[in-house]
Amino acid sequence: MPEPIPAAIKKLASEIVYPVALVGCRTSEMSLDCCEYDLAVFTPSQEDDLANKVVQVDNRPVELVHLTGSIKDHIIDLADMIVLKDNNKLMLSSAAKDIIAKKNKRMLAASGKKLLISSLFCQQKMKAAKHPMVAAMWLKIAAYEFIDGMLVLSGKRPMPVHILEQVRQIESRMAEGIDVALECIGAERATRPAISRSMEAIRELKSKDYDKMLFMSKVSHLLDRRMLVDCYYYAGRVAAKNLVNRKEIFYSQYSKLVQLALDLVSDLQSLEKMQKRLFRATNSSLRCGLPSSYS
Questions:
Q1: How confident is the model at residue 163, as a pLDDT?
Q2: Which residues pair with 38 in a beta bridge?
Q3: What is the Cα–Cα distance from 115 to 272, expressed in whole angstroms?
Q4: pLDDT given for residue 106 in this prediction
Q5: Residues 201 and 81 grouped into a single domain
Q6: Sequence-ordered list of residues with C-beta below 8 angstroms from that of 64, at least 6 positions apart, any chain
Q7: Same domain, 32 and 161
């Protein structure tokens, strides 16, 4: 059972004018002391222009995430939600009852396949890259997408700090390719010096992000608990999510920053071998005949 929700956080939710639900790892038994309370706030439309933010409530971090559109668009994130405040139409309470296991499983399957296809696209970008460091970046991003996809296909919603713990719980028949992806990510390189170098670069990448201090506190907590591999994985995944949608010119102009953030190694021959293995695992997991041009 998840820990009881602090009264101060319930009070905060009650003071928000829109429906509010607790989501994320605080609805599970996996949360750590560093984990924030994720409050999903359902705003009527994007016109309200409410920005996501992190606030401190009774010395606890709370992230306010504003969601718009249909609840059907957020089923995966809301599967285990705890309703803290509803509207007169009981929108969230009704949605909670409507998110049945079969529907959630169908949504997870679609999302998982989408992530695996994203991994293939990243692998294609790796092969097209003109600079070995950029190629290494795309392979690492592809590996993170692959692991997210495999988690979702196994019925789990990826929780960033806890992903490796979630991976350990995947049934062996669903875990095909995980070891290959972890090799692409370089989990064996998880040392304090490597993490420290990455942190300096990621701090620069996230300099304008509202959650940068929350990210730093999580890394510090994982390091204090000597969870080096989990910390390395988490930091790298945050960097990957930050970099994936940047323009190509950024990668060339700030190649050293990218290299440090993702702790990249530019051994092109080794990268190509790992990519072929990751492709086979990705293609196999999709269980469909993709064009050979992806390999």
A1: 97
A2: 23, 63
A3: 21
A4: 82
A5: no
A6: 39, 41, 52, 53, 54, 55
A7: no
Both 177 and 237 in a single domain? yes
Looking from the CA of 39 toward its CB, the CA atoms found within 13 Å total 31
What is the per-residue pLDDT for 3? 87
Mark whether 138 and 264 lie in a shared domain. yes
Q: For residue 85, give its domain range.
A: 7-98
Amino acid 101: pLDDT: 60
Q: Give the pTM.
A: 0.91
pLDDT at 171: 77
Residue 20 parent element (H or E): strand 20-23
47 pLDDT more than 70: no
- Cβ atoms 39, 21 nearer than 8 A: yes
Same domain, 69 and 153: no
Q: What is the DSSP string of 219-244?
A: HHHHHHTT-HHHHHHHHHHHHHHHHT
Average pLDDT of the residues in 179-204: 96
- Pick the more confident residue, 50 or 203: 203
Q: Which of 35, 52, 42 lies closest to 17 in space, CA to CA?
A: 42
CA atoms within 13 A on the CB side of 242: 25
Residues 54, 62: contact at Cβ < 8 Å? Answer: yes
Residue 2 lies in a domain: no
Residues 137 and 87 in one domain: no
Domain count, the chain: 2
Q: Say which amino acid occupies 113.
A: K
pLDDT, residue 43, reads 86
Report DSSP state, residue 268. Answer: H
Residues 39 and 184 in one domain: no
